[in-house]
Protein: Delta-aminolevulinic acid dehydratase
Amino acid sequence: MDLTYRPRRLRSSMRLRKMVRETRMDKSSLIYPMFVTEGTNIKEEIPSMMGQYRYSVDRMEEKLIELAEAGVGGVMLFGIPDHKDEVGSQAYAEDGIVQKAFRKAKEACPELYMIGDVCMCEYTSHGHCGVLCGHDVDNDKTLELLAKTALSQVQAGADMVAPSDMMDGRVEAIRSILDDNGFINTPIMAYSAKFASAFYGPFRDAADSAPSFGDRKTYQMDYHNRREALKEVLLDVDEGADIIMIKPAMAYGDLIREAKDNTCLPIAAYSVSGEYSMVKTTAAAGFLDEAAIVCEMAACAYRAGTDIYITYFAQELAKYMDEGRLG
Ligand code: PBG
Structure:
């Protein structure tokens, strides 16, 4: 055959394949989501998330040190309070669970970059992401509480805040309270395009945050929509977001790319609990190779355009990158 093009030429050895690789990854862009709970001496496995744990504040340190030693870039904290009420008051309490956890993390492991997930659903008795008016979440009343939550997390030591509630105008509300209190240099990573997704199932079990009635479809996005995702992204850019997030990651690569091509901000993608548990349970059944799938999922998210990858596999991925399996 007299072929002009033989693309296989560049695939002929590992050395060459690595040389021409288009997507490069770095451990410093990995973020690990971590659950902290009230109580002492607790490290309990989350039933729906094999290999993931809820830690009490006094037991966090062991995990934080492992993550820092592995080279993971940052940690995103989720608090699980003892007490929930209608207005989620533990979300913005000075001695709330996540505030205590930030203080501890900063003292135990100052080199780790600590991020606060800002939402109400783990803290409200009804499990919705804001305060209710009848059976729906009252957007504008919720903004005030989200802003207070973000401020209290930053005052406790959070390096960055990440609002995940999907209320309209929350980036602006948080930016303005942080600025008014002197935190002009604390970045906001906005969960800009967060979809009403069944992939969050295991998380709601982990954080005890399933809504007690209805669903989140009046605030989280409809997964049929691509242009609306871009609208949300561009609104958050206008409101002053520093980083844009797309969530979930695995089935939403088109939107990661859309955000990347239409903004000048760094893009984050959150590989959520359902993605994690699908891999874990299928691998445990012996039906697929866990490490290979985890590498492939990560590389695909970065290839789609993500700069920051939030994943329960962060520590494993850091190791795979060290081993040269990807990146
Ligand atoms: C809080 C929040 C959720 C997740 C991150 N922040 C749950 C939800 O929106 O129901 C999901 C993360 C995951 O599934 O890993 N609103």
The chain has one domain: 24-322. Residues 24-322 form a domain with the TIM Barrel fold (CATH 3.20.20.70).
